[in-house]
Structure to design on (301 residues):
């Protein structure tokens, strides 16, 4: 119980402001609180390692208002995460160990759309809309607008999408279908695989389909509707979260479900998930009665 109390205290007493009007203000805020929060975070990590209950969070960070519709997550080589807004092509970088918003940049022209997922493939970043369109661009500086290229997968006729990740071993993008649009099709977890570099339109090299009974196993969910996915850097397995079911599954690249269980903690609208190389699982929640937040757990494959 002590670990949970400490994590909650960090969120309430030292909330993420990230609301400075200028890059200089955000930088000053980050410098003043970062070292202290990192020390606190490391203490909580040690407590988590000594506690077999993986349901206890290491930290929970309240997000600023401009991230009230925080969605997908992608891990950078710096150990931070990129996230994005749901309705505008704006990308933000967050340090999950301190909860500090480091910077934000946008697609040129402040593109609007139903943006649902983000992933990083080498130097390229891909932002995905719910209709399967992919926006490719490079990382920008704080406040910058970056050029982009659009790839229309035309998969929006088959599925509504909220999940995208990059599988480095196979050099391909993975898109998990949230909702099959053909009502005559059976319930399943369907993942489309698109090799890189993308053509225009992109080509689907393979499709994985797992019957819903195999996905939910002994759980009582009627369905499983993915809201984000990530690759476990230790096993190469796919980690997929479903907001509506408040659950996640772990699937091998061969299609075997090795874990299927409710999310730990309290997640009213879990829209993003990320697994880091230092064994952290990060979950992002949109504002839903409670403020938007990211919650950090110790990841045990």
């Amino acid at each position: 119980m002590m670990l949970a109390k400490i994590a909650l205290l960090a969120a309430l007493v030292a909330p993420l402001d990230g609301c400075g009007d200028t890059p200089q203000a955000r930088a000053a805020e980050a410098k003043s609180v970062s070292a202290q929060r990192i020390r606190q975070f490391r203490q909580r990590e040690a407590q988590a390692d000594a506690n077999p209950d993986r349901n206890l969070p290491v930290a929970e960070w309240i997000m600023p208002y401009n991230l009230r519709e925080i969605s997908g997550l992608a891990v950078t080589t710096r150990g931070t995460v990129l996230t994005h807004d749901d309705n505008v092509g704006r990308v933000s970088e967050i340090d999950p160990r301190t909860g500090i918003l480091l910077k934000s940049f946008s697609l040129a022209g402040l593109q609007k759309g139903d943006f649902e997922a983000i992933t990083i493939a080498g130097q390229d970043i891909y932002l995905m809309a719910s209709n399967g369109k992919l926006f490719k661009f490079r990382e920008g500086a704080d406040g910058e607008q970056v050029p982009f290229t659009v790839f229309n997968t035309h998969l929006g006729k088959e599925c509504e999408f909220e999940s995208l990740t990059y599988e480095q071993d196979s050099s391909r993008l993975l898109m998990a279908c949230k909702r099959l649009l053909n009502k005559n099709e059976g319930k399943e977890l369907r993942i489309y695989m698109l090799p890189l570099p993308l053509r225009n339109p992109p080509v689907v090299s393979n499709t994985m389909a797992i019957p819903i009974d195999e996905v939910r196993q002994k759980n009582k969910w009627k369905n499983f509707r993915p809201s984000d996915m990530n690759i476990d850097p230790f096993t190469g397995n796919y980690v997929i979260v479903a907001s509506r079911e408040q659950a996640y599954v772990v699937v091998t690249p061969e299609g075997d479900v090795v874990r299927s269980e409710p999310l730990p903690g309290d997640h009213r609208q879990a829209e993003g998930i990320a697994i880091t190389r230092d064994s952290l699982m990060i979950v992002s929640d949109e504002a839903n009665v409670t403020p938007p937040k990211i919650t950090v757990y110790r990841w045990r494959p």
Notes: The two ends are 23 Å apart (CA to CA). Helices lie at 2-13, 23-50, 212-216. Confidence is low (pLDDT under 50) at residues 1-19.
